[in-house]
Amino acid sequence: MTAVAINARAAVRGEIGGVERLAREMVTRLPRLNPQRYRVIKPPQKLAHKAGHAWEQAALPLLARDAQLIYSPANLAPLASRRNVVVIHDVAALRHPEWYSSAYVRYQRALLPRLAQRARLVITVSEFSKQELVDVLGADPERIVVVPNGVDERFNPTQRTAHDRPYVLVVGTRIARKNVAALEESGRRLSALGIDLVHAGSGRAYMRDEQETGIFRELGYVPDEDMPSLYANALVLAMPSLYEGFGLPCLEAMACGTPVIASNTAALPETTGNAAVLVDPDDHTAFADALQKLATDDAHRKELSRKAIERAQQFTWERTAALTDAAIEPLLG
User: Fold this and answer.
1) What class does CATH assign to 4-150+316-332?
2) Helix then strand then coil, % of the chain, to nearest 5
3) CA-CA distance, 333 to 125, in Å (whole number)?
4) Where are the domains of the chain?
5) pLDDT of residue 153
6) Can you tell me the distance from the alpha carbon of 37 to that of 253, in angstroms, rounded to the nearest whole number?
7) Taking a C-beta distance cutoff of 8 angstroms, is the pair 177, 92 a contact?
8) Alpha carbons 38 and 40: distance in angstroms, whole number
9) Which of 2, 146, 285, 300 is 20 to 30 A away from residue 106, measured at CA?
10) CA dist 329 → 3, 71, 143, 251, 256 (Å)
11) Residue 101: which of 202, 14, 180, 175 has the closest Cα?
12) Low-confidence ranges of the chain (pLDDT < 70)
């Protein structure tokens, strides 16, 4: 009998965001940590997205019928099962439905509160998100464990190479909550200094996009293997998000020694600690001032880079896997 079945639906998706990153890492690392305890259940890749909802709700519990628990690392889990350990990263779609399609919001609204209230255990990625789960979903705080994300060893300063033109990087899916319009003034100022403002990330069908501003050099979706170099060669990572449950791009940039300017809201202060410049995301001039200063001040960048690397070293996927395993173990009896 398997102790824990791992729901690998998000791990088979082609494009990777923070949710998919955690899923992929746990699918690999939990069985490596305790091979007798964990078994991975993967759907066909064609069921990774919307088409896989029925697989997750109906087929997965049957495929995992020999398991004591079902661990689902990507927000959703089989609602009818009483064996769920579910990772809920945030409740953005319920807190800010205007950022998502109405169908997506309806599905999240129908499932998330019931999953959070019925699950044997809820794991989330930050203290900020834990409080959101309590406030928005009515989850019992005694059954929520915070397990922060990690950063892969591939993200490190050795990825730096000679680059033709300096750039400030923005990473994230194309959705209004990323607040990239806040960087319009920043983009004009940086352009005058010969510095590009580069955006990596694509849209998703269930997300409402922001209006095009024309200030970015758009890269679209960047393959995972190219991300360490893209981070490491940036002057600064800018993250003006209005809402983040964790803010993994900050951590990945910091691990590469790239200084971060981020919003002073949601989970971003918790993730970045004292190793980033934090700015009010609604104050576009303040963001432009901070970016201009950091992009042109070598000494400040060097000092912040040192702090960033030290901060990021505290977050590893091995730690995430070990904390997850430790949270699950008492449920096995």
Assistant:
1) alpha beta
2) 50, 15, 35
3) 25
4) 4-150+316-332, 157-312
5) 93
6) 33
7) yes
8) 7
9) 146
10) 10, 12, 14, 28, 34
11) 175
12) 1, 48-50, 162-163, 203-213
User: Phi/psi at 119 (nearest 5 deg)?
Assistant: -60, 150
pLDDT in tens, 163-219: 678 999 999 877 778 888 899 999 999 999 999 999 998 766 656 666 556 788 888
- pLDDT of 30 reads 98
Cα–Cα distance, 65 to 67 (Å, whole number): 6
Which of 275, 260, 270, 269 minimizes the C-alpha distance to 313?
275
Quick one: pLDDT at residue 175?
76
CA distance readout (Å), 266 to 24, 127, 333:
25, 10, 36
Q: At what angle do helices 184-192 and 284-296 cross, to 10 degrees?
A: 30
Contacts of 209 (CB under 8 A, 6+ apart): 174, 175, 176, 203
CATH 3.40.50.2000 fits 157-312, yes or no: yes
* 295-323 residues labelled b (16+ CB within 10 A) or e (exposed): beeeeebeebbebbbebbeebbbeebbbb
Task: Tell me if domain 4-150+316-332 and domain 157-312 are identical in fold.
Answer: yes
